[in-house]
Amino acid sequence: MVPGKEQYPDKADCTESTNSRHTEVNPFDLAREPLPVPESARTIQTSIVHRLELLLKGSSAWACDPAFQSAWQEVLSLTDCYQEEIVKHARRFATCAAGCASCCSHWVEDVNSFEAEAIADWLLHHAPEKIPAIVDRCRRDGAALSQLQALVEARLAMLDPAEEGAEIDPTDLLLASFYRLRKLCPLLDAGSRSCLVYPLRPLTCRMYVSFSSPVKCVPRYADDSDIPTYLFDLEEEADQLIDQLHFKFMKFEGDTGLRSLVLKYLEQGEM
Fold it and tell me: What is the pLDDT of residues 226-241, one digit of tens each?
């Protein structure tokens, strides 16, 4: 599969413009103008860092501990406010709305261990009847990714090092290619196009914000630098603290894929 988290990797700035988060980037250079971070948003960022520090110092040894999950939800609420302040300051209007699931066709990477475990735990206790279908789709999508990986590696091996495009990162190309398959996330209800675990959805899923017409939030426009799709990542200090939480609760080393991690936690929970 694709590479997982490294120990405190450099992450994209919260205003950096790209089609995806961290490893899930477009293989081509899309230079959009960054949005400024107002002082009001930086104040919220400080509060986020404080709460993350408290979480790290906490005694929770299990990611699904109610106290830990309650505190993490506070972090997510503050993150929503942080993004809203940036959008408001830029006088932009986000077009993301219920039922729009265009970005839900990515092979979602950079999912934290404690996020995936909480999602699996919720499914086991609140939607067990949906688990067989979710497991089946996770497995099929994982197989599709593996097949794509072999094709991407073979294609890149054929490129002349001096040829244009030879410098494309294999992981970037793999994830961009998977997006074009338009395989909806297994956690998405195909009928309503709504997320089954919306309150628990990973931080990386919350980062996408589009200011364009929803009809342009599809793979065919993924390489178009004129489409204003932004990534609202937190700043480095908060990112590093979240990484520490990831490693604290990590059970499956090297895996940060949403489909692959949720599958492993579900299989573990059913044993």
Answer: 666 677 888 999 999 9
- Those residues whose C-beta lies under 8 Å from the C-beta of residue 239, and which sit 6 or more positions away, are 11, 233
| CB atoms inside a 10 Å sphere around CB 13 | 15
* Dist. CA 141–CA 164, nearest whole Å: 30
Strand partners, 189: 194
Of the CA atoms within 13 Å of residue 129, those in its CB half-sphere come to 0
In sequence order, which ranges of the chain are alpha helices (DSSP H)? Answer: 39-57, 66-89, 113-126, 131-157, 170-179, 203-206, 236-249, 258-269
Instruction: Provide the whole-model pTM.
Output: 0.83
List 231's β-bridge partners, or say none: 208
Q: Helix, strand or coil for residue 165? A: coil
